[in-house]
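note to self — DONT lose this again. spent like an hour looking for the file last time. sequence + predicted structure for the chain T wanted, 80 res
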Amino acid sequence: MNTFRVGLTRDLLTSSGELTIGDIGLEALRKVPGVAIDFFPEYLPEVAPEQIAGYDAVISLAPKYTRETLAGADMKLSVL
């Protein structure tokens, strides 16, 4: 089975690692077989192509997605 990778932008976490907006269903998503969840290692105000590379989906709060975000990105992501 292929893994469905979900990336989350770092602005969804406080400095102590707690979710900034409360329960968004991550625990339920973590229990789904074949789904992997990762937080981006750093927050950037504009998402960089290398941040979304290899993800099937991204959950984000504030960062911008621009042409540069998608230009040349090695990504499986088809809809933002």
